[in-house]
Amino acid sequence: MMEDLPFTRVTQARSFLRVAIDYAGSLSMKENRLRKTRVYKVYVVVFVCFEVRAIYLELVWDVSTNAFIAALNQFVTRRWLPSVIFTDCGTKFVGVFNKLPDLVNDPSCHNQITGSTYCTWHFNPSAALHLGGLWEAPVKYIKSLMT
What we know:
This protein has 147 residues and is of the alpha/beta class.
């Protein structure tokens, strides 16, 4: 017999209320189509909705904590702050988790977020990589499309 699905997967809610976040690796992006053009290395941040499995992609220039905060800021501007975030234990995610209370409480960063808004962050255990299957499958699909 199979185990029941988690509560976060079966309750009805607006899209992107509960999300999973992961990086889809690096890509090479050309400035234009000319032969001797600059090539930039960019990274894709993948936001996966738990309710309908919709995918939101955001490009960042590096894998630093500040770049991820900028991507999360773009996501919050378009989709609102999620109530639950699931990620692996990457250093960029842990760094943002430590800075998140300051970002939410700062009115100059997000003036649309009220004081009652909260965000719960869940990390996968380091030894249990199989627990992130919901968001690793879209990452695998995106990598296959972009290579």
